[in-house]
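## Example record

The block below lists the input lines for one assembly entry, exactly as stored, with component labels intact.
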Amino acid sequence: MRAPQGVAILGATGSVGLSTLDVIARHSERFRVVALTANRDVEGMLALCRRHRPDWAVMVDAEAAQRLARELHGEAPDTQVLAGAEALSQVASMEQVDTVMAAIVGAAGLLPTLEAARSGKRILLANKEALVMAGALFMQEVAAGGATLLPVDSEHNALFQGMPAAYVPGAGRPEGVTRILLTASGGPFRTTAAEQMSKLSPEQACAHPTWDMGRKISVDSATMMNKGLEVIEACWLYTMPEEDVQVIIHPQSVVHSMVQYQDGSVLAQLGNPDMRTPIAHCLAWPQRIEAGVEPLDMFAVGRLDFEPPDLRRFPCLRLAQEAWHAGGTAATILNAANEIAVQAFLDRRLAFTEIHGVIEATLAQLVSAEADSIERILEHDARARACASELVSGRRTAQRVYS
Ligand code: NDP
Ligand code: MG
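Predicted structure tokens for the full assembly:
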């Protein structure tokens, strides 16, 4: 029998991290949990360590790491607790690790995921922000390090499943493919009137109609920035021009995306909206394993609807498309400004309808440059965060909306 695949899960306490552990626990003969990481959720990590007994547990926050080590003491003597952001890169490149699940939210996931690429790991990529902010560099490191890049994001995983046999992301434009049809649920505000939108609360934004996800991506889905980030993600993964990536609103979230071929064929991947399907697909690829997902009942689904996106009510999608065309660090700036604006909205310091304005103004104020080094990318990320934070403090609508 083959030795089990050693897995490191970056962002283990999050929505994707927990779904990954759920799939892994169904196949303990195939996978071994080598490392788990979190930012500061000690309770969450404690439960995971008790259940999965990793060799290493990383907490980025030093105090949280101390608390975890104290709580685990005597209980899980084989789990070593590490602290700090550097420890993320350390576990992502360990010899015992074959597979890295990149499921940290936001730019914080970039450096460890790059390290996994350099170390030639099998990378299961959920952390789309890493690709958006540093796509060219990331794809270069994947190729140079001999890593295998497998997309976990449900749409990109669906596309991967519809690609020609033996095709893997990063292998250039897939032969015979004319278009990518990227589906989007439309989020919780798909039918909300424009006049209502300034009053929308974080709770409403996080109540996604079809997917249960972390708070940041839930807000991204509500603004449709998520689909914008995914357009950029698709362009990098599949070497496609943005013009050949069509966004299609599909409220049922059953068709997870489609690949159109030059002979007129359109290959779609369908399934219930449950991240365990793309996660299991990537974990076992090229084989298939059971994922605990309910089989799709087409009679219960009943109908599949498709409609074009409304760029007027959802300008974030347009901003992402423009940033892709601007090239260089424009997508880095877009991503950073979005992270700041989304956090401000979640903290009730910014109205829902001000999110795009902060991003657009940040893009207008900063001059983008070649995204040719990690130093340059991190510098532009930091500048965009500073600029967007200042813009947030200048806005006053949120006070009226939430007071
Ligand atoms: P969550 O917010 O649920 O989880 C985020 C994870 O990242 C947690 O483990 C968190 O630790 C950790 N984390 C947060 N900040 C830092 C930091 N600064 N340094 C290190 N670790 C950190 O996010 P999701 O699981 O929803 O999303 C994860 C990624 O996957 C995102 O990039 C998202 O876009 C992508 N994705 C998610 C989908 C979903 O269904 N949720 C679908 C497709 C893509 P702690 O708990 O300690 O805060
Ligand atoms: Mg997605």
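Residues 327-397 form a domain with the Rna Polymerase Sigma Factor; Chain: A fold (CATH 1.10.1740.10). The CA atoms of residues 123 and 149 lie 5 Å apart.
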